[in-house]
Automatic annotation (TrEMBL):
Residue ranges of domain Ribosome maturation factor RimM PRC barrel in the record: 107-195
UniProt similarity note: Belongs to the RimM family.
Domain notes: The PRC barrel domain binds ribosomal protein uS19.
InterPro entries, alphabetized: PRC_RimM (IPR056792), RimM (IPR011961), RimM_N (IPR002676), RimM_N_sf (IPR036976), Transl_B-barrel_sf (IPR009000)
GN (gene name): rimM
Keywords associated with the record: Chaperone, Cytoplasm, Ribosome biogenesis, rRNA processing
GO cellular component: cytoplasm; ribosome
Main function: An accessory protein needed during the final step in the assembly of 30S ribosomal subunit, possibly for assembly of the head region. Essential for efficient processing of 16S rRNA. May be needed both before and after RbfA during the maturation of 16S rRNA. It has affinity for free ribosomal 30S subunits but not for 70S ribosomes.
NCBIfam families: 16S_RimM
Xref: Gene3D superfamilies: PRC-barrel domain (2.30.30.240), RimM (2.40.30.60)
Subunit architecture: Binds ribosomal protein uS19.
Organism this protein belongs to: Treponema ruminis
Protein's name in the database: Ribosome maturation factor RimM
Residues annotated as domain RimM N-terminal: 12-94
Localisation: Cytoplasm
């Protein structure tokens, strides 16, 4: 899953050290896919800690086995390539990895309302009710997890579910799997929760 930043700019990978003597470097893809890198004409490198950013034309990007090697115009020796080690590789949405069915960009899931309707032992509702807001997507051991900030004003959740022992509204993690998540409507910023008990 590729993460994006403001203005529909996506983090598609990270520089993972120099390779060879020409200024080429290895790339780690955030999506696990590499083919879309070979079509890129321009990228920006950004220091995730300082926010410093530099734009480059792509000389070439080649897949070699399980790795991808990229050469950018103006980075012509291993010492310079090494200076960008661990920097983010960012591109506009149009150059991000194409989505397959039931795939979404992380940024499109952020700020979606998590809604529930139906009977689940705790509530019976005829209309969807917002139980929380998606704040991020995290990688878990068995797949991606939606980070959810629970809604303080949700009357279908008990206080023991909504608040932690310090009285603060809880953040919970919901597996992004069909058994827990129903319809995902990123256009209208709504994601359907199948079971309330997963929030406990």
């Amino acid at each position: 899953m590729e993460k994006s930043n403001q203005n529909d700019v996506f983090i598609v990978g990270f520089v993972r050290g120099s390779h060879g003597i020409s200024g080429e470097f290895k790339v780690e893809s955030t999506s696990g896919e590499y083919e879309h890198f070979t079509k890129m004409k321009e990228v920006a490198l950004r220091n995730g800690k300082t926010g410093e950013q530099k734009s480059f034309s792509v000389e070439y990007a080649e897949v070699g086995g399980r790795d991808l090697y990229m050469k950018l115009v103006g980075i012509d020796n291993p010492e310079l390539a090494q200076k960008f080690n661990k920097w983010e590789i960012i591109v506009p949405r149009k150059n991000a990895c194409p989505l397959n069915k039931n795939e979404w960009y992380v940024e499109d899931l952020k700020n979606c309302a998590l809604v529930y309707e139906g009977k689940d032992g705790l509530a019976v509702k005829s209309a969807p009710i917002k139980v929380g807001t998606i704040t991020d997507v995290m990688e878990g051991g068995s797949g991606n997890l939606l980070e959810v900030h629970l809604a303080e004003d949700c009357d279908c959740l008990s206080d023991s579910i909504k608040y932690d022992s310090n009285g603060k509204v809880r953040t919970v993690y919901v597996p992004l799997k069909d058994r827990f998540i129903g319809k995902v409507d990123v256009k209208n910023k709504i994601i359907q929760l199948m079971h309330l008990w997963i929030l406990e």
